[in-house]
């Protein structure tokens, strides 16, 4: 067993938290808001029919878009209510409940590595801090040697970017491109958001 994620601690403290989050995104979708910006960047980075892991997929807005675009998508999230919503709202990907710290997709019948892994929406800041390096290590283990991981989260959420870079290095990743937005603005020392495109250190 690993330490419980901060997200599931929130759910334990407020059982309505998951439903609130699901409804928030459903109402934005009904209002016609653009919920696919991150997914469009991922789509642009891979060939058609790529293998994509949506790590901490929540109710599935990225994975759903990417499956519609013709990719083979697996989404993993620790919150069963969010996975149920993803299955309902975005049929197509394989949606799985699981803690990223214990990610072992070959044991669940998915042996092939991924071309790209995306983790959007501040997932990193909802991990139990004691599991961060382990989670990044599990992502590395599921990535093809020529693949990339794209991880986005904001500052002011108790995970310093400098610590994240150290953790990513410890997990076997090297920064490829650092951005401050999903529409490709560069990362600087003053950025309050990070989109890190990482490659395996050996590659
Ligand atoms: C703010 S939501 C973002 C959801 C989705 N990525 C998006 O952008 O719409 C953060 C997500 O991280 C997931 N999460 C947090 N810790 C996790 C863990 N250890 N393993 C798997 N998922 C986790 C939560 O369950 C939640 O769905």
Automatic annotation (TrEMBL):
It comes from Mycobacterium aquaticum. This is SAM-dependent methyltransferase. One of its GO terms (molecular function) is methyltransferase activity. Pfam families: Methyltransf_25. The keyword Methyltransferase applies. Keywords: Methyltransferase, S-adenosyl-L-methionine, Transferase. GO terms for biological process: methylation. Residues 52-147 form the Methyltransferase domain. Coiled coil: none annotated. SUPFAM superfamilies: S-adenosyl-L-methionine-dependent methyltransferases.
